[in-house]
């Protein structure tokens, strides 16, 4: 079920490359529809439409990949006839993807949430090994497949990137991944979500949705099975957040954000078809720290700006001296760089008579840097 009150943010990303649709048409025309062998009509058992792997959930990555493959064998041929046209072909995969992205409001009866018999009499499809319609919950997580959120730290009010990574310990060919990431909407704003370095190009099928309290991501690297995600420390997604206050923000891999449901699932290609997995999950924390305060020109962080700071800067720049504990303070002229101009600015202020005062927050007042730059400050005003 979806969370009440969660609405997609403007700018949610939807990607369905045209080559997927061309592939679907080409396969349907080229190989024709695969009509499964007749079965006895009185042998029907209840099922969920679109639950191809028979786990009670509709829309896992295993369901999608089984539906895309017109030759796949699964427990219930009626469940695999996603569009209920009496045939098993790649159009069922297209129909299931359309349902997951919201273009199709519901699958034909008995539907995705209902459990019942096929109301269509003219087809010869049936269920032969669909044992129960009960939703299977509490499946054990695979220790060989892990999804983890890499914790990150940043300054309050700035944009902080957080990556979701995948560890595939046995280097199995992973073809499909789906997950959601939840956070407290009152503590941070989700700015954007995109794909990470694990994808050299956009997946054949993908959907990224943003909500006030999280986001969902679904990706099938290749519908033809020629591109896989393999290995450890694979960066799947990168999300950018902006925090409103200092502290720790929990980021959890979750379900329940979207309708239809985005289940946490992986699909791995095998010699016999597709295996679905529930991955091991490691959640993360986004730590937001206050913008540090400093005195401009106090390069050695002793609480005052004097000749020792100019010497410290010259030693750092030209004598292999230690780096200033606060680069923002060492940037005496506030040009966003540490160079010879900074000790000159300090000396001009100290001994130049009419030399200009150092930029804000000044040499005698503690404050934050009003200028956006890449310099950081590890020290606070004493």
Q: What does this 3D model show about the protein?
A:
It is built from seven helices and 14 strands. 17% of the residues lie in helices and 25% in strands. It has 382 residues and is an alpha+beta fold. It folds into three domains: 105 residues, no CATH class; 148 residues, Immunoglobulin-like, CATH 2.60.40.680; 91 residues, Dockerin domain (Type 1 dockerin domain, Orthogonal Bundle), CATH 1.10.1330. The protein is elongated. Strands 1, 3, 5, 7, 8, 10, 11, 12 and 14 form a nine-stranded mixed β-sheet that branches. It has a five-stranded mixed β-sheet with strand order 6-9-4-2-13, with no helix packed on it. The relative contact order is 0.14.
Helix/strand layout:
Layout lengths: L12 E4 L1 H14 L29 H8 L8 H4 L9 H11 L41 E8 L2 E4 L3 E10 L5 E9 L5 E8 L9 E7 L2 E7 L13 E10 L3 E8 L10 E6 L2 E5 L1 E4 L1 E6 L17 H12 L8 H4 L10 H11 L31
Parallel strand pairs: 2-13, 3-14
Antiparallel strand pairs: 1-7, 2-4, 4-9, 5-8, 5-10, 5-11, 6-9, 7-8, 10-14, 11-12
Helix pairs in contact: 2-4, 5-7
What is the count of distinct domains? 3
Question: Shape from CA axes?
Answer: elongated
The proportion of residues in beta strands is 25-35%
Describe the biggest sheet?
Answer: 9 strands, mixed
Predict the CATH topology of the largest domain. Immunoglobulin-like
Tell me the span between the first and last alpha carbons. 52 Å
Give a count of the beta strands, DSSP E runs of length 2 or more.
Answer: 14
Q: Indicate the CATH architecture of the largest domain.
A: Sandwich
Helix count equals 7
* Helix content, binned percent: 10-25%
Specify the structural class.
alpha+beta
């Amino acid at each position: 079920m979806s969370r009440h009150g969660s609405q997609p943010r403007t700018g949610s990303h939807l990607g369905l490359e045209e080559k997927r649709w061309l592939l679907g048409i080409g396969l349907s025309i080229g190989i024709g529809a695969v009509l499964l062998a007749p079965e006895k009509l009185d042998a029907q058992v209840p099922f969920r439409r679109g639950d191809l792997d028979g786990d009670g959930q509709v829309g896992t990555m295993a369901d999608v990949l089984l539906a895309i493959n017109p030759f796949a064998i699964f427990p219930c041929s009626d469940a695999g006839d996603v569009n209920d046209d009496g045939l098993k072909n790649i159009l069922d995969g297209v129909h299931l993807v359309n349902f997951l992205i919201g273009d199709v409001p519901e699958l034909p009866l008995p539907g995705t949430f209902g459990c019942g018999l096929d109301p269509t009499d003219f087809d010869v499809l049936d269920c032969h090994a669909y044992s129960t319609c009960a939703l299977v919950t509490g499946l054990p997580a695979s220790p060989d497949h892990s999804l983890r959120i890499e914790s990150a730290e940043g300054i309050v009010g700035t944009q902080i990137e957080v990556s979701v990574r995948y560890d595939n310990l046995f280097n199995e060919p992973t073809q499909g991944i789906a997950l959601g990431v939840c956070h407290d909407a009152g503590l941070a704003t989700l700015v954007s979500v995109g794909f990470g370095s694990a994808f050299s190009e956009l997946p054949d099928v993908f959907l990224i949705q943003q909500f006030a309290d999280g986001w969902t991501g679904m990706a099938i690297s290749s519908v033809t099975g020629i591109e896989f995600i393999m290995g450890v420390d694979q960066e799947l997604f990168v999300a950018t957040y902006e925090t409103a206050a200092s502290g720790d923000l929990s980021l959890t891999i979750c379900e329940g954000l979207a309708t239809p449901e985005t289940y946490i699932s992986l699909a791995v290609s095998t010699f016999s078809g597709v295996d679905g997995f529930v991955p091991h999950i490691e959640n993360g924390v986004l730590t937001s720290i206050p913008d540090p305060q400093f005195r401009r020109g106090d390069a050695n962080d002793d609480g005052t700006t004097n000749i020792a700071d100019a010497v410290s800067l010259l030693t750092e720049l030209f004598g292999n001296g230690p780096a200033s504990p606060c680069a923002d303070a060492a940037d005496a002229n506030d040009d966003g760089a540490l160079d010879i101009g900074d000790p000159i600015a300090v000396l001009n202020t100290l001994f130049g008579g009419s030399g200009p005062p150092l930029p804000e927050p000044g040499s005698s007042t503690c404050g934050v840097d009003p200028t956006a730059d890449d310099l950081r400050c590890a020290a606070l005003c004493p």
